[in-house]
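Notebook, p. 212. Picked up where the previous page left off. The plan for this session was modest: take the two constructs that came back from the sequencing core last week, fold each one, and keep the raw output in the notebook itself so nobody has to go hunting through shared drives later. Recording the first one now, exactly as returned: residue sequence, then the structure token string.
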Amino acid sequence: MTPPETASVTTKPAGAGTGPGGARTPRGLGGAAAPLRGLAGLAGLVVVLQVLPHSGLVSGDYLPPASEMARALWHLLAEGAFWTALGDTLTGWGLGLAIAVAAGLVAGIMIGSVPVLRAVTASTIEFLRPIPSVALIPVAVLLYGTDLRSVLLLVVYASFWQVLVQVLAGTQDVDPVAEDTARSYRLGGWGRVRYVMWPTALPYVMTGVRLAATVALVLTITAELVIGAPGLGHEIAVAQTSGAVPQVYALVLVTGLLGVTVNLMARAVERRALHWHPSVRGKG
């Protein structure tokens, strides 16, 4: 859980901020300005990418202008192969994330509910968790070749630990008073999980899912790029081999947009699932 913030000396009304000269400004204005600042930063990046190749500092052979990237992206959007590759990437990402979240939840609740089981598995978890998923690429290729299962092996392995560690942390954060109350009401094992452990662990679970969603996307594209499995990563490798530099950057931009979209979706789900939690209500 997010630790409580240190209390400040002065307080301000919830709906207002302090502007220049001590004048109060509505909080909504600051919230409306944030997207504008983000768009301004994005526009600045586009200008830099457009100007840099013409300045002589970077060769246009390695960094084409933003206009060429946009033109290449427009051509990609008109090709059926691009949408097929995008579907392959989203399929690998979605399936891998779903399997990892389900396995992490079940394993985390089971291990966290039994102190002896947690003690027995602690060293094993700490040994396996730091192993980079990319180190399993040779194993994945030997087992499944360039099949979707190779992608799933890497994605599930990397994302599983993100969820499991967070669930275990959540199960350890259960209030002892709540535990004693559950015992006094003679709640069974399922009742304790549902009414005591789950509400406490849910914020941790959502953090794990958000982290796992990003990690899953990174590993999906990495597997496609290195192994050659169908998807956007494979298309990047093909474009790079054929010397289509603008197309490479266009595909990289697509993966970046995918990452932003995944993060926004995960945060929206997190806010929806934790609408009752003080950390979310305080942001409203």
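Okay, moving on. Second construct, recorded in the same format:
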Amino acid sequence: MQVPVIDISPLVARSSGRDEVARQIGAACRLHGFFYIVGHGVDPALRARLESLSRVFFSQSEDDKMRLRMALGGKAWRGYFAVGNELTSNRPDWKEGLYLGTELGPDDRRVHAGIPLHGPSLFPALTGFRETVLTYLDALTSVAHRLMEGIALSLDLPADYFAARYTTDPLILFRIFNYPSRPAPEDMEVLWGVGEHTDYGLLTILAQDDVGGLQIKTTEGWIDAPPVPESFVCNIGDMLDRITGGRYRSTPHRVALNNSGRDRLSFPFFFDPSFDAMVRPIEGLPGAPDDSAARWDRANVHAFSGTYGDYLLGKIAKVFPELHSSVEINDAGFAEK
């Protein structure tokens, strides 16, 4: 079983042929929730520049990288974490990373209100890094909007269904991950670059370098999603699973330990509902069965009730428990301890 490659240029151009692209996306979402996209219009030079700058950042000393540690990002949840400091299912992942997102200043109402995951990023002092990241986020945001139009059409919904309800002001989160080729210490019991998980929101658009390691769980077992030149890998998240009543399932995936002899870079871009959006099933769809017994986290996304922010914060608490403990949630809002 292979992950399909879909040319989305008719979606990007909003031209004839986009209904056929939507059909292909729908088929991929029903099959196993993953697909490659080409014809996306993102400048290859921009992506190459991002990769080059990221390698320079990760080649720095640990002390230099820790000057951007996530603890300094506060409630915005931005910054650097060292190898082994992010958990999946309570086990450390063998990667390091830089958390980024939509750049918001202190005058933004959400920043002023202290809403988590909103604020400025902590950028390395590398020439062109900030500008490259922000340009890349703009480019991927545009692609994500077109893809969500395709997903809406695949469900026989108006093209603007998701934009009108969830993504007029989407929550954009971006990660730059480095998977070192060096082995993990035996006493850490590290098994994966990233352990089995599903993504939380609507849509993930992933750029990966030529090393590989991404694996997808299917009904026939785990399959590889190797690098395809000039492509992105897309997958759907828990909230799209919930919205579609389980018609489109968020698929578990993982990253194998990197034994290639070269460090591996990946760039997941998360296109999610706004933080305060109430996430509800599409009207008229049959109710989804409880599939928690088969899920990696034993959770039932269809039983969840609340905003996307509620769901996301609950998940983050398990990924960065120490960092989460530094933020107190009370009736008045969010305040740092």
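Notes on construct two before I forget. Confidence is low (pLDDT under 50) at residues 328-337.
Flagging for discussion at group meeting.
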